[in-house]
């Protein structure tokens, strides 16, 4: 990736944040639950996968984007019910059940030896959500360290950064960027690469193979972006 210079105008920082918002919105939606009809229609009709940010800087992200595009080129998930159900079932089978999950979506499954949910890892993530006023759906039913919820948390913190740009609160923006960097290092990047390896092996659609290639490589790239932002003066 190109290094961000040591001093940038606020408008350029906002452009980076808007690109991140677009990327995290796509990722959180496809990892937190089965694809909804409404969102998949919007995703396809607006050709959103082709607009995925930073793919020019990462061959791995480009490879994932190509896999998603290949699937959508041969499956009309908007108008053909069986194609939509195939995509829907692929998510359900991997992440929800009813059978043994080939790709557990919870951080605890990878970072804890016992793999138990609602223990230390889940509670650590919950405290961070509470700190920033992020409410988890199905509280105490869905564990807070679900990959989709963690991606949603990144989306939320980035959204806060964008709102602070309107106030030119550079100090608070830097604090939130540091929080996101820590969350990537201490949570998402500790388990997402393993999760996505399992997805690539288990997925029945090239759509989710593609998403599994995009996600870990985007997170690694985003960590570099955040590092550059932390070392950039905003004016």
UniProtKB/TrEMBL annotation:
Q: Does the keyword Coiled coil apply?
A: no
Q: Does the keyword Chaperone apply?
A: yes
Which InterPro entries does the record cross-reference, listed alphabetically?
DMSO/NO3_reduct_chaperone, TorD-like_sf, TorD/DmsD_chaperones
Q: Which branch of life, at top level?
A: Bacteria
Which keywords does this chain's UniProt record carry? Chaperone
Pfam families per UniProt: Nitrate_red_del
Q: Which Gene3D superfamilies match?
A: TorD-like
Which named protein is this?
Answer: Molecular chaperone TorD family protein
Source species, please? Neobacillus paridis
């Amino acid at each position: 990736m190109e290094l961000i210079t040591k001093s940038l105008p606020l408008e350029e920082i906002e452009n980076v944040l808007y690109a991140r918002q677009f990327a995290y919105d796509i990722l959180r939606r496809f990892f937190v639950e089965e694809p909804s009809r409404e969102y998949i229609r919007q995703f396809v009709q607006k050709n959103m996968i082709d607009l995925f940010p930073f793919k020019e800087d990462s061959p791995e992200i480009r490879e994932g984007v190509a896999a998603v595009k290949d699937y959508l080129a041969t499956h009309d998930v908007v108008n053909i019910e069986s194609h939509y159900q195939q995509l829907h079932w692929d998510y359900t089978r991997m992440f929800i059940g009813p059978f043994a999950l080939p790709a557990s979506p919870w951080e605890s499954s990878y970072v804890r030896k016992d793999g138990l949910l609602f223990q230390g890892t889940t509670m650590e993530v919950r405290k961070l959500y509470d700190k920033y006023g992020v409410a988890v759906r199905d509280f105490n039913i869905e564990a807070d360290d679900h990959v989709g919820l963690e991606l949603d948390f990144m989306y939320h913190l980035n959204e806060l950064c964008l709102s602070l740009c309107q106030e030119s609160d550079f100090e608070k923006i830097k604090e939130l960027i540091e929080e996101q960097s820590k969350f990537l290092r201490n949570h998402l990047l500790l388990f997402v690469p393993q999760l996505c390896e399992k997805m690539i092996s288990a997925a029945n659609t090239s759509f989710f193979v593609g998403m599994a290639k995009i996600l870990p490589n985007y997170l690694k790239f985003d960590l570099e972006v955040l590092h550059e932002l932390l070392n950039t003066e905003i004016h």
